[in-house]
């Protein structure tokens, strides 16, 4: 009986000793969690303002970007493709914060990066999955906050404006000052690309009209022809060398053989990246396998 009482007393003593410790740890966790919520970019940084920088661009010399973050949870973006004229794309919308309060998300931006890490006087563009971009170009995805005293002189023809529908979803305003397109080199967009091979099979031209693919950087659209029907759709470039095609549609003409058109549409769905070598355009799948080759004809 004495042994049983001794065991029970020992158990009670241990329980009394452990309970305060557990309570203390729980309080520490609660305080730590509350501290984290109180001290994040959303609550601690002066993030309202204008951020500028030149982001990497897959088919131009650089993407001049200005993002303005407003107090009413709205934003505006101005973008210009260097070396491709003076056209400025303006987009506006709302933003929200992630759970941690350190990343803003542009809610109406689709098929391209829409998340930015908020730092001390910086906005860092994240990739499509919301992760920081690494590698040699990582520092080029940072936009710097502009001082309130900084002003820029810009002459814009207010009478020369048009609205462009990007990817059939995003309405943007285009401000045109004057046109000075890039010349003397092949770029992904604005170049007419003749299909040379598809899935490692050489393409033999069967008609006078060339089988081609052409991308338009002004509205994020592409057009193509593969022997009979006209093909069109949207494209987006998540980051340098990356490209995805979507919303492809085709006219419904009756053709003796639609094999090439069918295979071409299937190929577009698998495109993940691209590379330009002199006058050649290579399209790659997710596994970095070449699935289409083109040569520049314009």
Automatic annotation (TrEMBL):
It holds the Pfam family META. Residues 187-294 form the DUF306 domain. InterPro entries: Cu-R_lipoprotein_NlpE, DUF306_Meta_HslJ, HslJ-like_sf, Hsp_HslJ-like. PANTHER family: DUF306 DOMAIN-CONTAINING PROTEIN (PTHR35535:SF2), HEAT SHOCK PROTEIN HSLJ (PTHR35535). This is Copper resistance protein NlpE N-terminal domain-containing protein. It comes from Flavobacterium aureirubrum.
């Amino acid at each position: 009986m004495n042994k049983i009482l001794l065991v029970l007393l020992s158990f009670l003593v241990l329980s009394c000793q452990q309970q305060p410790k557990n309570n203390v740890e729980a309080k520490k966790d609660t305080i730590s969690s509350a501290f984290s919520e109180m001290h994040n970019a959303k609550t601690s940084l002066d993030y309202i303002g204008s951020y500028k920088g030149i982001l990497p661009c897959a088919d131009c010399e650089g993407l001049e970007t200005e993002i303005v973050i407003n107090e009413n949870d709205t934003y505006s973006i101005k973008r210009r493709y260097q070396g491709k004229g003076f056209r400025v794309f303006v987009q506006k919308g709302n933003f929200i914060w992630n759970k941690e309060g350190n990343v803003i998300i542009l809610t109406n931006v689709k098929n391209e990066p829409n998340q930015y890490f908020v730092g001390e006087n910086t906005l860092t563009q994240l990739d499509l999955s919301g992760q920081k971009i690494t590698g040699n170009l990582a520092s080029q995805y940072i936009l710097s906050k502009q001082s309130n005293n900084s002003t820029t002189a810009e002459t814009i023809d207010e009478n020369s404006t048009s609205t462009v529908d990007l990817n059939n979803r995003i309405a943007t305003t285009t401000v045109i000052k004057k046109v000075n397109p890039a010349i003397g080199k092949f770029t992904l967009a604005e170049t007419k690309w003749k299909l040379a091979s598809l899935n490692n099979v050489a393409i033999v031209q069967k008609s006078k009209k060339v089988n081609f693919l052409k991308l338009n950087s002004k509205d994020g659209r592409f057009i193509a022809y593969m022997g009979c029907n006209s093909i069109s759709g949207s494209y987006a470039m998540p980051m340098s060398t990356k490209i995805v095609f979507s919303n492809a549609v085709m006219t419904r003409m009756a053709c003796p053989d639609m094999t090439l058109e069918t295979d071409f549409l299937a190929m577009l769905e698998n495109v993940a990246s691209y590379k330009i070598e002199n006058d050649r355009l290579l399209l790659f799948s997710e596994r970095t396998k070449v699935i289409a080759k083109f040569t520049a004809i314009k």
